[in-house]
Amino acid sequence: MNASVEKVTPYDQFNLPIPEDHFPEQGMSARAAAALVISEEWTDTNPMLNMSSFVTTYAEPEAMETAHRNIFKNYIDHDMYPHLFAMETRMVKWLHQLWNGPKDVEPYGTATVGSSEACMLAGLAHKWNWRTRRQSEGKDATRPNMVTGGNVQIVWKKFLRYFDVEPRIVPLKPGNYRLTAEDLDQYVDENTIAVVAIAGQTFTGEDDDIQGIHDWLDAYEKKTGHSIPMHIDGASGGFVNPFLYPDYKWDFRLPRVQSINASGHKYGLTPPGLGWVIFRERKVFNEELVFYVNYLGGEMPTATLNFSRNGFQIAVQYYQFLRLGFDGYKRVMQHTLDNAIALRKILVDSGYFTIMNETQRIPVVAVTLDSKITKFNEFDVSNKVREKGWVLSAYSMPPNAEAVKSLRVVVRPHINRNVAQILGNDIIGACRFLETHGGNATPPKLHAHATEKSSPAKC
Ligand SMILES: *Cc1c(COP(=O)(O)O)cnc(C)c1O
């Protein structure tokens, strides 16, 4: 054996340089490559401690095995993986029923990469439906607009810009962080393709005033003859409301609600890469948006923005629905909410914080420092608890509530009461330290682009 080869130990291999600006010329051993990748992962946040994200970070071993078994299945290839497609189709019906869709219709919907793709598809359907209707009435169909609150997630601003729909964004104000019917008369008109209302918003976790908006649109139709549909962005609330608040009408029970999206990878409890969009009935998803592609021996409809994508999330979502059932989701969401309420109480009782979301639906705790605290701000608290490993979002609210800064904790199912207590203590410990030593964090400058300055990308 060549002596020089023997002398190359793993220590030498792990120390190989990584090229910055050219493609690696020669390969290396599997162990060396893995060691290099792992060493770059070390200082990334531990996903479990990422309290700023809604996205699932825990799954049972059986769910992980399901993911591994399915990881090489291309979702779009229905011909090769008809049973993965059958799982998706069945889950579309389940969600349509869970969200109280009418019984006598053909449910329609699809799995997507996340709520973003789901929102885009819903937005497109409403744009197409609006245009078809306007054209059939011989009216101008060139100036579509969409009405949302200033609390919308960035995806809606993307949709509006990418698909050329005029943004009509109702600003927030200090003390009110949700879309209500109050100012709608200044925003809604005959060119409004839909009003988007959120169930479980990213900033404070609250729901928009869905019923109030619905009633306002009913009155508007009576007055003007313009019937305007609603889309519900239930990215988070879609997997909380049905289980915890069965009597609360946020969904297809309201006739104007024509489409709903939710993130399977948030409270749907699937690893990242899954969203859902469900339509009230088949005809809401405009047929012109459906493509029929030739697969081996057959025609397959496709109506997603992506073509190839990983299919494992669908199998895992199916596992979770079967594993937990309605009863299991209800229990998981209840304990998660209880832990959020416990954390909220610890923070409010400390005297440092005021709660921002009076109505607590999804398990999000959004607080702002009490106005008497001047020596440090929410960004200082976020930086300080980072020393303990926690990642907490601090942010300035969107216009016209920019003066309000917020600290947000997204409580997810893996946070048990014990961990909520430790986190609460660490946050209060950080406040005590900052009270003595002062803070110096300045809120990050927001992007200056006119339509985007209100959009920190909250997930
Ligand atoms: C997370 C979120 C989105 C975007 O969803 P992804 O699943 O991250 O693509 C849209 N709207 C709301 C309200 C969200 O919370």
Automatic annotation (TrEMBL):
Keywords: Decarboxylase, Lyase, Pyridoxal phosphate. It catalyses: L-glutamate + H(+) = 4-aminobutanoate + CO2. InterPro entries: Glutamate_decarboxylase (IPR010107), PyrdxlP-dep_de-COase (IPR002129), PyrdxlP-dep_Trfase (IPR015424), PyrdxlP-dep_Trfase_major (IPR015421). Its cofactor is pyridoxal 5'-phosphate. It comes from the Bacteria. It holds the Pfam family Pyridoxal_deC. Its EC number is 4.1.1.15. One of its GO terms (cellular component) is cytosol. GO terms for molecular function: glutamate decarboxylase activity; pyridoxal phosphate binding. The modification N6-(pyridoxal phosphate)lysine is found at residue 266. The keyword Lyase applies. GO terms for biological process: L-glutamate catabolic process. The keyword Lyase applies. PANTHER family: GLUTAMATE DECARBOXYLASE. Belongs to the group II decarboxylase family. This is Glutamate decarboxylase. It comes from Pararobbsia silviterrae.
